[in-house]
Amino acid sequence: MGATPCGQPDLVDMVPPDGAADVPPNAKLAAHYAASADYLGEAVVLVLPDGEEQTLPATFDATEVRLSIAPPTPLAPGGPYVVRWPSLRGLNATAPGKGGQATFSVVATPDSTAPTFDGVVAASWDLDRSTNDCTNSIEERFSFDLELGIAGDDGGRDDLTLLLFQTSGPAANDAAVQVLARALPPAGESARVELPTGDAVGRICFAGLVRDTTDKVSSSADRQACVETTAPPFFRGCELGPTGRSGPVGSMLGLLAIVWAARRRRDRSRP
Amino acid sequence: MRGTALSPGSTSLALCSALFATLVAAGCGRTSLDQAFGTPGTDAASTADRPADRPPDHRADRPIDRPADAAVDIAVDRPVDHALPSCVPQPEICNGVDDNCNGAVDENLPAIPCPNGGFQYCVAGRYSDCPQRCEVCVPGSARTCFTSFCTYWGTQPCAPDGRSFGACQEAKSVPPECEAIAKSMQRSAALEQCCLDNGYCCVDTFDLDNDGDHNEMLGNCEAVSCVP
Question: How far apart are CA B60 and CA B70, in angstroms?
């Protein structure tokens, strides 16, 4: 789930994205919002190439925080089409978040086959520990950068949604846990998953699949990428200065200097 | 004196070097060492694990829908890979195995709709859990907590990513309906009960439901809980 400032219910991404040129005529259109968003029947408007505006009934999936519409008839090839995604209110806030709109064009060939995806091919991790202004607390998060394999679909790569799962670790002992559902990042970009410390220490594995605009999914979730993480706090005993300048050798020399100075002071104080 | 002054330092150098070597061997100082020597998590373990590369009945990959004993028995019956019988095609099921002998594992299996939305997918040989809106709490929400000083009443905001609560922040005042209890009973089970009775979402600090969980939340938590 993407973090928004203090939980604003903003739109996060759209599938298809703005500018998509290869949307299949049988596509379902969708938008993801921040986790705090709630749907209260706001209108989703599809503007046809001739300028006609259609308000279509929308479906809200609260688990994925995803608003979607399914045009009643296949879209005619061409464009431009515009879909306007509404501003939604938050579960805990009356002020609406940000909406959005996507302009796209439609191709003649319907999406008929499931997408292909090489899955999550590698993972690396880091620990972020910073003060959060929203909670006035220090938040610790393990961040995992997941390298994604090649993805494709007869409906176009831009129209894919990435679903990531944690398959191993404290939070995924019994079954895989979905940790991300977002528009697929551009080719060559990794996906980032952040997990709290309690869910992210030990052998942590991820798998992924992609879903096209007709809800068909790739057969890629059998491939996992794993890392072994270590729980904080980490040992910093020999680190006296910025590691970038001095490094561990410099830090140890600094420690030696302190020990030497202390011994010298003690020797001097002896009668 | 100058000559002997170096002696303690030499001793410390030996000690610190030994300590450093020991810690490296034990895997300590990961972040510090990784900052110095490389990126965290790019160790040998950070490689893709493909079930196809493993023996098909590796116990760690045992599918959840197969009995454990059966998996063990199969492993015993098949001591080495070259002794495996030829693949007998069977309908593909979610088990991390190429049942239909087409070279693909768990392919084209249907997603299972969840009662509250979303789907369960076949992931790593098992169907995934039903997804939730967030992990711990709805971003932007807050629950009531109890401090051990001053007003004894506070709020605990949810982190923007919904993955944790922040620290309990003391409120300047207690809601009128619980003010008297806070003054007389201070931080107590009675104060938590007052919190619940008056429609707040409250940390179960005093385990009023007797389930042993002191960190859960009770009460009116619909706007805080991740379960839709």
Answer: 14
